Here is the input.
Amino acid sequence: MGGAVASENFIGVRGVEPDDAAAVAALLDVLGYPCTEAEARERIAHFREDARQFLLLAMSNGTPCGLAAMKLNYSLTRGADVARITALVVSPESHGQGIGRRLLREVETIARRNGAMRLEVTSNPSRTGAHAFYHACGYSDGSRHFYKPLGE
Here is the structure.
């Protein structure tokens, strides 16, 4: 995928490879979902085996600095595919360089290319900075999200 210049850094976005497991683990930790490198490698394999899931890594001058995950789901209520961002994170030292926006553009392009009629993202109510970011990128508030842990 192509690159863009932001803050004099070359920002590229590409699909995640198995050898990116350490970077994926570190970025998931930043997002608040710590995992080991081995666990990250297993998660990457899951994405690579499912053609309806996409996992992207942003690179700044060759260093991993952001991650986005998206899944396509058929929506019974909408009668079409809906894309959902399941993770989006930028390393703290890379904030303000346009990396999050670049990842969103890539995800939006992939969603459109795959026929999704809508792109959704869920964000924890405490992540007010993320909410402001999504609003600034043209996203609107939507439905409330409920969940119930099912145990192990």
Q: What stands out?
A: The CA atoms of residues 117 and 142 lie 15 Å apart.
